[in-house]
Amino acid sequence: MKGIKWKENPDKEFVHEIRQKLKQNNGYCPCILIKTPDTKCPCKEFRKMESGICHCGLYIKTAKGTDLNEH
What we know:
Blueprint: E1 4-8, H1 12-24, H2 44-48, E2 52-53, E3 59-63
Antiparallel strand pairs: 1-3, 2-3
């Protein structure tokens, strides 16, 4: 999306935990019980957001112009 950027949560220990859970869950969001293409990380709900935090807290989306690392 133009004008939007996203980054990982700055808490490295938390990110490590979530990445381990994602690996154990074959890349599906560990916070959503249903496994569909829409719940593959990053989930569809997060991809459609203009700003906010994904279900598991791994990614944060903001408007461009901040000092976050862009993805």
